[in-house]
Write a structure and sequence with these properties.
5-stranded mixed β-sheet; single chain; Protocatechuate 3,4-Dioxygenase, subunit A; binds fe (ii) ion
């Protein structure tokens, strides 16, 4: 990769803007999305985290392992009352081959408890969810314990509507067993930082889903409707605002404060 900011970096910035909460807009730090070579965060580019640069590097698959169970409950939090363990949130986006976010993607997570054990009777530490309009997901859980013979990991299956299932695993940086676990793959390292007594992790998936590139050769009609709060805009959409024309750069739902001239990550003039 050469020296200029990767498309991923730009895309992430724009997407972060696209899903930012008002708190984030007021300057609260967003989730850590930078990581050093060993996986710790200190502002450098993430060399090991999978990128969505050209969309030709889908997230690699990994074995399912012996403990997947179908019919997990639909939930974004795997925490139950008094769940022991260090709190962990995992956030990220699911992209297709053109690096555009995919909505409606099923993510089914399962993991070990704090002692490294899987619940094969009930559904503790099992849950599925779907990405929203912007392709984002959030999992709230604990840092899994160590299962014998393995390094620390999460299991996940992903499936875009009508597409094959991707089964894979996610890993934690700085784990001693990463060096000895034959399944470990640095392309599946999350970025992780300490936050509020717990951990915040980030990972973006790229699924083998064909997409038409976003603001591409399709010529949008001139003009377009007036920008309006609550409208879901897609890349390439044209609007007018304050008498000027703008073209949407990233899919998002318009919110107050995101008027085109104030949101250069979302709109370019012209
Ligand atoms: Fe496992």
């Amino acid at each position: 990769m050469d020296g200029h900011p990767s498309r991923k970096t730009v895309l992430r910035a724009a997407l972060a803007a696209g899903v930012a909460t008002p708190a984030a807009l007021m300057g609260v730090p967003a989730l850590a999305r930078t990581v050093t070579a060993d996986g710790t965060t200190n502002g450098a580019a993430p060399p090991l985290t999978p990128s969505c640069d050209d969309g030709d590097d889908p997230t690699p698959p990994q074995m399912e392992g012996p403990y997947f169970k179908p019919n997990s409950p639909r939930r974004t939090s795997l925490l139950e009352s008094n769940t022991p363990g260090v709190r962990l949130t995992v956030t990220g986006y699911v992209f297709g081959l053109a690096c555009r976010p995919l909505s409606g993607v099923l993510l089914d997570f399962w993991q070990a408890d704090v002692n490294g054990a899987y619940d094969n009777v009930g559904f503790r530490f099992r849950g599925h969810q779907f990405t929203g309009e912007g392709g984002a997901f959030t999992l709230t859980t604990i840092v899994p314990g160590l299962y014998p013979g393995r390094t620390r990991h999460l299991h996940v299956k992903l499936q875009a509507p009508g597409r094959p299932v991707l089964t894979t695993q996610l890993y934690f940086p700085g784990e001693p067993r990463n060096n000895t676990d034959a399944l470990f793959d640095p392309r599946l390292l999350m970025t992780v930082r300490d936050a509020g007594g717990g951990r915040e992790a980030a990972f973006d998936f790229v699924l083998d889903v064909p997409q038409t590139p976003g603001p591409g050769p399709t010529t949008p009609p001139p003009g377009g409707s007036t920008w309006a709060v609550g409208t879901a805009y897609r890349p390439g959409d044209r609007v007018t605002y304050g008498g000027a024309a703008y073209t949407c750069l990233q899919g998002h739902t318009a919110q107050p404060g995101w008027e085109p001239p104030r949101a250069p990550a979302l709109w370019r003039a012209g």
